[in-house]
Amino acid sequence: MFVSPLREPQPGDHLVSPRLGFEHHGLYLGNQHVMHYAGGMSTSGAGESDGIERVSLETFTQGNIFRVESHPYRRFTHDEAITRAWLRLGEQRYHPAFNNCEHFVQWCIEGVSHSPQVSRWLLRAASATDNPWLGGAVLLGGILGHLIMMPTRRE
């Protein structure tokens, strides 16, 4: 069973649940259901999925805790964010760096597909090498990939 956050989620809230080495993101729909980009983590019973799916809150958390991520300057209301999520249900364009669960939820709420988690990973990867050319190439590759994917999700 999952552990409740400090406050109960409201429909349209951004949920974050820790996994080993990363955080998983979803949009709370209400009635104990979440819309998320499965990214090969589907436990809905239909086999492995890389698509956007609706699952129970318990399935989303996989027994882990979760928190509600704050969006003080959200572009879309909670109801609008839910409507946007339903528009992408079943989409099968998952990519861990350019179109993941966090990109999906950020797009639903803010209107722009981005992942601060991926940005942090890219900066760490770029700074982890003693070779400035290699670090720069990693960072540039991440930025270019992000820019290529953004126009398909910007409104």
TrEMBL record:
GO terms for molecular function: N-acyltransferase activity; phospholipase A1 activity; phospholipase A2 activity. GO terms for cellular component: cytoplasm. Pfam families: LRAT. PROSITE patterns: LRAT. Gene3D superfamilies: endopeptidase domain like (from Nostoc punctiforme). Keywords: Acyltransferase, Hydrolase, Lipid metabolism, Transferase. The keyword Transferase applies. Residues 14-117 form the LRAT domain. Transmembrane segments: none annotated. InterPro entries: H-rev107_PLA/AT (IPR051496), LRAT_dom (IPR007053). The keyword Hydrolase applies. This is Lecithin retinol acyltransferase family protein. It comes from Aeromonas veronii.
